[in-house]
Amino acid sequence: MFSFHRDLHASVGSPDPSTTSSSSSTTSPTLPCSAYYIPNFITAAEEQQLLNKISNAPKPHWTHLSHRRLLTYPSALTPNNILLNSPLPLWLTAPYIPRMQSLNLWSRSPHGQPNHVLINEYRSGEGIMPHEDGPAYHPMVATISLCSPIVLDIYEKNEMRNPVEKRVPMWRILQEPRSLLVTTGELYTGFLHGIEGVEVDEDLRPGKGGIVNWDLLGDQEVFGQGRSTRGVRTSLTYRDVLRVSNLGGKMLGKR
User: Fold this and answer.
1) Is the dihedral of CA 151, 41, 44, 188 positive or negative?
2) In what order do the strands lie in the sheet with 116-122?
3) Residue 90, CA distances (Å) to 41, 63, 73, 77, 94 in order
4) What is the mean pLDDT of residues 57-62?
5) Top mean-pLDDT range of 11-15, 188-192, 221-225
6) 64 pairs with which residues across the strands?
7) Is 236 helix (H, G, I), strand (E, B) or coil?
8) Residue 114 CB partners (closer than 8 Å, separation 6+)
């Protein structure tokens, strides 16, 4: 039985949620795949420190895409999905990765911790098409959200879908500022995820068609009107790349 959890302490009986699913007293039966949501995973001061570091990143380091801009640490993967061995900057690791590890995240990933971080900045009205992260990574993603709330849509894979039909998400996950969302297992491998390019997120409520993690939100009253106007939202997406190579060509890390 897959479930949606608030607290990794209670729900992770095995070393890594990407390889198991379990139940706890704070689950939502509406999302039948392993996912974990922790509001206020970081403090407001930590959020501001991260934003300061991101805003000071040299402009040439940004990759400008059609509907967002992107920073990649420590580097982009090669065409063969290999990461060149290099440490993450300290401001992305401490105290966030140790905090994740204290929740048993990454204990079964090849390197015991994330080695790759994507920083995406979405302005109001921007989003990303439904996609999957693919086999280059250990099947677990941990995302810290900064600034504006945003809704993450989860879709079924359907290769025969009529291209003119609008996709309808199976589940909608509301990510609050400073929250941590962990997606693992079947939710990582068996579904697509995306962000609709809108200026206002609507229908923010519990129940069918609403927000599946409503009961786990840190502050439901903020969304009491059922809508949220988007500002700039920044996400830090932590992953463990499976294949890592030194510059000399030696492969590292696969256990």
Assistant:
1) negative
2) 27-28, 4-5, 35-38, 180-184, 140-147, 233-239, 116-122, 69-73, 63-64
3) 18, 21, 11, 20, 6
4) 86
5) 221-225
6) 69
7) strand
8) 88, 97, 100, 106, 142, 238, 239, 240
